[in-house]
Amino acid sequence: MREIRIAIAGAGNCASSLVQGIKYYGKKRGKDRDSALGLMHYNLGGYRPGDIRVVAAFDIDRRKVGRPVGEALFSKPNCTKVFSGGKLDIPVKVQMGKVLDGVSEHLKGYPDDRRFIVAKKRPVDVAKVLKRSGADILLNYLPVGSEKATAFYAEACLEAGVSLINCIPVFIVSNRKWAKRFADRNIPAIGDDVKSQIGATIIHRCLARLFEDRGVKIDSTYQLNVGGNTDFLNMLNRSRLRLKKVSKTEAVQSQLHIPLGRERIHIGPSDYIPWLDDNKVCFLRIEGRGFGNVPLHLEMRLSVEDSPNSAGVVIDAIRCCKIARDRKTGGPLVSPSAYFMKHPIKQFSDEAARTMVEDFVRGKIER
Predict the structure, then answer these.
(1) The CATH number of the domain where 153 resides is what?
(2) CB within 8 A of 258, min separation 6: which ones?
(3) Is 147 part of a structural domain of the chain?
(4) Half-sphere exposure of 140 (CA within 13 A, CB side)
(5) Does the pLDDT of residue 367 top 70, yes or no?
(6) Rounded CA gap, 129 and 360, in Å?
(7) Per residue in 238-251, pLDDT tens?
(8) What whole-number distance in Å separates Cα of residue 90 and Cα of residue 55?
(9) Is the Cα torsion angle 171, 177, 179, 181 positive or negative in sign?
(10) Does 251 reside within a domain?
């Protein structure tokens, strides 16, 4: 198998965890029984984690632009856990992207180590860099609310013939017009808004489906999340949360036969707590009625390192996207998007989506 050449837009915590994971699992090479610990698949369609190679990266922070990727991914304001040994030998340098709406104004009121600091450099021609690097896939890891910036990178992908894996809640792959453009160019894409390995959304979806399958009527539910990374700091600007709330809410509503009324469901970020760093804490409650119309309430608390949690999913998304490129299959990938993303072009239950991904890898035509 050939290597999978990836480019990264946004050298933050999520990118750091992903690239650390490529090194971590690449060193194991299936030699021991723990080689696949933490992965959904060690070998996916013939591709292993160590087959993934970073060939380009873009950011706007002065502590990252111009530095080798292997150094930039450990630069402030990144704060995720280091599990790869603390050194990444990736000489490719981070290049200056376009800021557009990628940086919220409110960040200026916070310490330098916690916020983005825009580099005073001219943006590069992203499409040209993608072509020159030979990238197969671009991962979009921009901050939540970066709608114009995400569209800019999507355009660059279309121009360069590069696939897009859109990990944030800006609707590109699930948007019919954008989806058609990727299909017309026969470029595979996966999106939108990554669904973490064992995260708040996947658990909320599973519990909602469980309640319904067991005959319990859900009356109301909430999911509140707090954390201390730049993602949560960025989301203190509530104007950037519009699509985030839509994405997370629809992901849960899609598992219900009859969606809850708007006033009976609340899902979204709640607050920023600096000392939590990349740890995310979810508080979840479901209120319902079971046998005899008797009330039933569930309370749950989940604490998880946010960025490795998403990387465990993205590493599979990358390999599925490369499989599609090898097969010269273009447009939104229905099965991988349904399994790996909160807001795919078509929703399925997680159990059904997993089966569909396995079928996709084996070469079965997508629904």
Answers:
(1) 3.40.50.720
(2) none
(3) yes
(4) 36
(5) no
(6) 31
(7) 999 999 999 999 99
(8) 9
(9) negative
(10) yes
Q: State the Cα–Cα distance between residues 264 and 260, nearest whole angstrom.
A: 6
**Which residue range forms the structural domain that includes residue 162?**
4-195+308-361
Q: What is the pLDDT of residues 154-169, one digit of tens each?
A: 999 999 999 999 999 9
Quote the radius of gyration of the chain (alpha carbons, Å): 20
Average pLDDT of span 307-332 = 98
Q: What is the Cβ-side half-sphere exposure of residue 113, based on CA atoms within 13 angstroms?
A: 6
Q: Which of 100, 151, 159 is nearest to 125 (CA)?
A: 159
Taking a C-beta distance cutoff of 8 angstroms, is the pair 21, 81 a contact? Answer: no
Q: Note whether residue 367 is domain-resident.
A: no
Together in a domain, 159 and 224: no
**Kind plus residue range of the DSSP H or E element containing 62:** none
Q: Nearest to residue 279, comparing CAs of 94, 13, 8, 3?
A: 13
For residues 231 and 307, what is the distance between their CA atoms, to the nearest angstrom?
A: 10
Pair 318, 169 in one domain: yes
What global pTM score does this model have? 0.96
d(CA 61, CA 119): 5
Q: Are residues 223 and 284 in the same domain?
A: yes
Question: Distance between CA 193 and CA 254 in Å, rounded?
Answer: 15
- Counting the structural domains of the chain, the total is 2
Only one residue has tokens 């319902």, namely: 288
Cα separation, 48 vs 30, in Å, equals 9
Angle at the Cα of 45 (from 40 to 47), degrees rounded to 5? 80
